[in-house]
Amino acid sequence: MRLLSLIVAVALPTWAQTTCPTRSSWPTDAWPVNLVDSTAKAAQVKTLEDYAFTLTGADAERLGLRTDALLIIKGGVIKYERYGRGYGPTNRHISWSVAKSITSGLVGAAVLHGALSIDDSICAYLPEYSGKVCDIKVKDPITFGTGLDWQEGYEHSSYQTSSVISMFFGVGHRDQLKHILTHRFYATPGTGWRYSTGDAELAATVAKRALEAKVGPNPFWTVLFDKIGMSNVIVEEDAKGAVLGGSHVFATARDFARFGYLFLNDGCWNGERLLPQGWVAQSTTVSALFKASAGSNVVTPAGYSWWLNQAVPEHGMPKPWPDVPGDAYTADGHWGQFIVVVPSEDVVIMRLGDDRNDAVDLNRLISYSLEVVR
Questions:
Q1: Residue 270, exposed/middle/buried by CB under 10 A (0-12, 13-18, 19+)?
Q2: What was the pLDDT predicted at 156?
Q3: What is the pLDDT of residue 367?
Q4: Picking from 69-73, 110-114, 153-157, 209-213, which range would have the lowest pLDDT averaged per residue?
Q5: d(CA 278, CA 274)
Q6: Averaged over 6-21, what is the pLDDT?
Q7: pLDDT > 90 in the chain, percent
Q8: 11 falls in which pLDDT band (50, 70, 90)?
Q9: What is the Rg, in whole angstroms, of the alpha carbon atoms belonging to the chain?
Q10: Comparing 170 with 238, which gets the higher pLDDT?
Q11: Would you tell me how many other CB atoms lie within 10 Å of the CB of residue 119?
Q12: Percent helix, strand and coil across the chain, each rounded to 5?
């Protein structure tokens, strides 16, 4: 028995929590608020707000950074909160690709409930499909490794060149799962890394199917959202029930921050484990697939659909945010949506925006935010 215990201990990631953290704050119903002293922190707040909230030109011109919400949570308490452009604490906001990180968490919840294994074929939950797509394992879409020849492109792309645009607004919009799974393969599943909204939507639909069979209707709320206070989140689906888990999750800034707080606490909430032991550690470790096959145009390394402030010597990649602690990781979305988790600082940063011609410098945003609450 002593030998078995040693083997188990060694097999666990060295930085994974083995028990749920104890907290004085579990904001299921409401976040505690104790804002930083605006006088004592005047210089730091000004630096942050001059960067994040100074519009370039008229708002209608959509220039520069256009912050809709910015929250900084330290120790489970909101220490800074500001909104812009008509938003407030009760307004839902589109997540765009922040949804991908949420989807990977929902897959983890399905694993915890015994609804699926990441080594299962997706066809175990999509019995209407057969053939080569059944070589795709559940793990593949949350690591962008399905091998499907997906072409990611947004508002400046055409129906003919963007798998995303054709899925949402073109030939694939009525049956998005079919649209995804009828793409040809450019690589054997599990051998090629390519960023894909289609992969995330596939993962979300598999998680929903598996959990429905285990816990019944509205499974995402049953196993996770309701438990952490994200009761008003909206997750869109297409006409056939495929979950738009790559982009179309809507929630308030405070609710998105709850999801970050779940990860900050190793997938636990108020003493209850909602994600498997070690899941957060695996999610925030650079995946073997990324190390083996990510393209040279990728500048931020990835785990289970989270983006990591870690160097990847295999690709000659330094830390993407050099002035930020190396344990920081983010969920990133188009037009400036971010959930940032910095475990060493006990901090979650939530930023929502509508940036069209400029990109947030995360090194600056995170650094300035940390200075406000240190």
A1: middle
A2: 64
A3: 98
A4: 153-157
A5: 12
A6: 50
A7: 82
A8: very low
A9: 20
A10: 238
A11: 8
A12: 35, 15, 50
Task: Give the pLDDT of residue 101.
Answer: 98
Angle between helical axes of 253-264 and 98-112 (0-180°, round to 10): 50
Identify residue 171 by its one-letter amino acid code. Answer: V
| Tokens read off for 213 | 């069979």
Distance, in Å, from the CA atom of 135 to the CA atom of 111, rounded to the nearest integer, reads: 19
pLDDT at 372 over 80: yes
| Selection from 213, 254, 216, 315 nearest residue 68 by Cα | 254
CATH of domain 48-373: 3.40.710.10
Please give the angle made by the CA atoms of 288, 291 and 294, to the nearest 5 degrees: 120
How much of the chain exceeds pLDDT 70, in percent?
Answer: 93
Domain ranges of the chain: 48-373
CB-CB neighbours of 282 under 10 Å: 17
Structure tokens at 337: 């949506």
Kindly compute the dihedral angle of the four CA atoms of residues 122, 198, 365, 312, in this order, to the nearest 10 degrees: 60
Of the listed ranges 84-98, 150-164, 351-365, the one predicted with least confidence:
150-164
